[in-house]
Amino acid sequence: TVPAMLCTRIENNEGIGVNTIEHxxxxxxxxxxxxxxxxxxxxxxxxxxxxxxxxVKALLKAGQKQQKYPTRYLHILKEIKxxxxxxxxxxxxxxxxxxxxxxxxxxDPGIGKQxxxxxxxxxxxxxxxxxxxxxxxxxxxxxxxxxxxxxxxxLENAVVVDNGKILNRDGLRMQDECVRHKVLDCIGDLFLTCxxxxxxxxxxxxxxALTLDLLQTLMENKSSYIVKTYTKESVATSGxxxxxxxxxxxx
Length: 251
Fold this sequence. Notes:
There is one protein chain. β8 (about 135), α4 and β9 (about 160) form a beta-alpha-beta unit. The chain has helices spanning about 20-30, 55-60, 120-130, 140-145, 175-190, 210-220, 230-240, and strands spanning about 10, 15-20, 70-75, 80-85, 90-95, 100-105, 115-120, 135, 160, 165, 195-205, 225-230. α1 packs across α5 and α5 runs parallel beside α6 (about 210-220). By secondary structure, the chain is an alpha/beta fold. It has 7 helices and 12 strands. The strands form 3 sheets. Strands 3, 4, 5, 6, 7, 11 and 12 form a 7-stranded mixed sheet that branches. About 30% of the residues lie in helices and about 25% in strands.
């Protein structure tokens, strides 16, 4: 990963990369896919409606193929903590599944302060997290477009706020949509390990840079985690379920 404006970016050694991968990564994690080929022609992934729901729906409809090698997961053994700018911080410590506790605090009263405590399961992700759209302040949209990003960005694929007002005609999908989308983003960024994480992630003023800093610190501290192989018990405990191809697709 490399630094990017308001999103997560990956690059190869030649500097060729793609932006805004976090929604797709979040969806892959949610439905239990850890091996997939993705073809994209452009500088960033499609934004869809600003959430992960269209991606999840397509993945469930397409189905999965079980491979012969067992899935591995990363089990946190001890607390790791990092600090960011303007008082932001993030930490992760041991848990039997993936838990996320976030506090956001934005100067625009259209977003303001919101908090969420969330324990992952695929069903709760689909119902409570996947539909939450990306959000930003109006000035952020203008800055991204000046940088050549978010070219398809509009009120159909993002919650846009300006001086306390939600500019989207239909308003929010849920009262705490913004902090729920932060959960979606964090799940996607944490899955950059290419393995599910069993741990409790907590952050104040979370963001992509902060989560990636925590991941890098975690990976550098080899005694803070152990890589294990999935068993039936660990799958049931963590909420990960691989659906067959005939699985019902949410409406």
